[in-house]
Amino acid sequence: MSSLTTAQKLFSHPETRRRDTSTQSLSSISSPNLSSEEEGDTASEASKIEDDPFPDFLWMTTEEPHRSRRIAIMKVHPEVRKLMGPTRLTALIACSVLFLQITIAILLRNTHPFSLPFILTAYIIGGTANQNTFLAIHEITHNLAFKSIRANKLLAITANLAIGVPYAMAFKGYHIEHHKFLGEDGIDTDLPSRIEAIVLNNVAGKTFFATFQLLFYALRPGFIRSQTPTKWHAINLLAVLSFDALLVHFSGWKSLIYLIMSSFFAGSLHPCAAHFIAEHYLMEGPLDVADGDVKGLAQETTSYYGWLNILCYNVGYHNEHHDFPSVPWTRLPALRSLAKEFYEPLPSHKSWPYVTWKFITDPSVGMWSRAKRTGHGEKLEPTIWSWSTKNPSSEDDDDKEDLSEDIVIEQELTERGYASDRETEAEKKTKIN
Predict the structure, then answer these.
(1) Which ranges of 36-161 does DSSP label H, i.e. alpha helix?
(2) CA–CA separation, 239 vs 261, rounded Å?
(3) In sequence order, which residues have a C-beta less than 8 Å from that of residue 41 and are 6 or more positions away?
(4) Phi and psi, residue 8, nearest 5°
(5) What is the C-alpha separation between 432 and 423, in angstroms, rounded?
(6) Which of 162, 171, 276, 413 has CB atoms 3.0–4.6 Å from 101's, for a disulfide?
(7) pLDDT at 211 over 50
(8) How far apart are CA 302 and CA 349, in angstroms?
(9) Does pTM top 0.85 for this prediction?
(10) How, if at all, do strands 58-60 and 8-9 pair?
(11) What is the spatial distance between Cα 349 and Cα 189, in angstroms, rounded to a whole number?
(12) Nearest Cα to 279, choosing from 321, 311, 307, 308?
């Protein structure tokens, strides 16, 4: 087994139920000099993995791939900073879609909710529109509509009116954790739980999951990692419920049913909803890692570059988004073009609907097809991504000299990239002046 392969605790397929439990040090891809404390943490994590009675997931001993690749790209392409920052086009589209949905909801006030015109409208137009709204809120969560944090929160709550159910402020907290702690069991609530993986590990179960994805994403956090309510949660709740009450008062229940039905279809068996599965499920199974090839380390996030991105704020550019959450959707294609040597070699999906079909029908893919880790994992050096640009073996001295630069870049992008709600020093000075 190659040294890179030991970076992965290969999950067992149901038919084999076995796992590689090697705990060899990842000297070729991670920090070469581990402290005794770090070695102890790694051994502890490996012990937890080995004792796991249901080894269905792909357990990683290394950190998520995006931090190190972010630094590597910044060192080669420092001009990527010019792509960062908000775009007000998001606010314009979000408000336009909200107006569209309210208009349709009012027009359908005298149409029976179970009639074919109502259902088709809710699926084709409403489902697409509300999926667009979900992803508008996703963009706004990263503070990519306005510079002001408060303005972004207010816009997210306004866009949330089209969904019919308050969720924008709760989503913000969970989603930022998803970026910071990608794949960390017990923190990243995007990950299916073990009981989900066991119970839904068949065609019927996977169909149920794909149909009711929003229900899982709404309920799972409460069992895994609940949030402490804030005033913004209360504002979100009050705003959406008040809007619902006004809509019912002036237009009737059928109008509200349209919005909620649209939201259900948006997260169900809808072509655009496939991105939920496509982004982080291991659709090709765990990739083995040959010497000198680190594609296996990048497999827990997969991009899609097809035309459905037009309707979905380019969320298909998911590797790019996780690498640089501070780059808005309008500039993700430019990011991919700028750093194409890093992205073009990575696997990508050709079709979102096919992803859903394969997820449901392929017995080798299921709820357990996710990469997990029991903690942060061993840090990956940015030089591991040099496979796309140069031979890292000839750059050892330069890498040591660049260590301080790596730290500066990491600190900068941790703040800018994860949409911290803390004001930057520049914003504070602007307020004072």
Answers:
(1) 36-50, 66-76, 89-107, 116-120, 127-141, 149-160
(2) 20
(3) 375
(4) -115, 130
(5) 12
(6) 162
(7) yes
(8) 7
(9) no
(10) antiparallel
(11) 23
(12) 321
* CA distances (Å), origin 205, targets 54, 272, 303, 360, 367: 18, 21, 25, 8, 9
Span 28-57, mean pLDDT?
A: 49
Long-range contacts of 205-209 (CB under 8 A, 24+ apart): 205/367, 206/359, 206/360, 206/366, 206/367, 207/360, 209/367
| 164, 133 contact by CB (below 8 A) | no
CA-based nearest residue to 118, from 311, 264, 247, 257: 257
Q: Which residue has the tokens 């994805």?
A: 213
Q: Enumerate the β-bridge partners of residue 305.
A: none
Q: Kindly indicate the confidence band of residue 282, based on its pLDDT and cuts at 50, 70 and 90.
A: very high
Phi, psi at residue 305, to the nearest 5°? -115, 20
Distance, CA of 18 to CA of 296 (rounded, Å) = 19
Whether pLDDT at 9 is above 50: no
Whether residue 84 contacts residue 40, with contact meaning beta carbons closer than 8 Å, is answered with: no
Q: Give CA–CA dist 385/379, Å, rounded.
A: 13
Q: Dump pLDDT digits (tens) for 58-69.
A: 888 889 999 999
The rounded distance, in Å, linking the Cα atoms of 248 and 256 is: 6
Nearest to 11 by CA among 364, 389, 432: 364
Provide the mean pLDDT of the chain: 82
